[in-house]
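tmp note - LacI family transcriptional regulator
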Amino acid sequence: MTKRLAEVAKKAGVSEATVSRVLNGRSGVSEATRTSVLTALDVLGYERPTKLRGERARLVGLVLPELQNPIFPALAEVVTGSLAQRGFTPALCARTIGGVPESDYVEMLLDHQVSGVIFAGGSYALTDASHEHYRRLTDRGLPVVLVNAGVDELGFPRVSTDDAVAVEQAWGHLRSLGHERIGMVLGPEGHVPSGRKLAAMIQVAGDNPSFVERSSFSMEGARVAATKLVERGVTGIICASDVLALGAIRAARRLGKAVPADVSVVGFDDSAFMTCTDPPLTTVRQPIETMGQAAVDILVSQIEEARVLSDELLFEPELVVRGSTGPAPTH
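out:
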């Protein structure tokens, strides 16, 4: 018990005596201090005293995929900062390959009496994945917001980049440079945002594009997929993420092609350091700051007003032209 008091006091930045007063329900403690102590208790994984368990912590879960794609740490920075400004404590849950699955993080967050959860890049975006853990959140009436497109039947509010506009911008840019054989490297089958990008490509290209390859969201997976496209004579490649675009550039070079002289590549995200790649990457920028703040606003409005929204907010992306795209080769 003494160790627990000391740990909670240190985490909350108060004295052990103050922690004791909060846990025993005594007066003489401000509401802000009381909230800090209870949040520290939740974050450290200690159970609340029975009489305090009915109250949800001002703790919000942020569940992300592995952080290899720089766009996710950027989103985490926006969301955690915005939550802190609204008086909530973020609990960051980042998955790793072979590590804790998303469903286990959901159980942990429920055990900690969180006020709500924001998900990004989760299994909600995969049609063939299990969605049972999301239904547990629905059953509890817990506020949830998804970042980017997910399967429709979950019914959670979504804050998404407009995938159709992203493809229109990328395709229009490559066409303006004279490219006629334009391919795509997308995420796996059943990945909803990739499906939306493919539908948009069919719309702008006027028919079913034959130059489409699927990949895991890894540089190596993209290299394999893009190699097939380049070998089939594609001169412009639109990718579903910046990581995939870097894999496509690597594929072109391994085949003895120059970027952009022989093959032009367009990414998606505009994640950190894309100005520092060789060549600097032309990409479609997701408005991460605006989207992250919107996700927090929607979540907090549900928490404080108990309003359930199931709409999807679409945010317009922006084409950022750099050095990885150029005129189509004439040979």
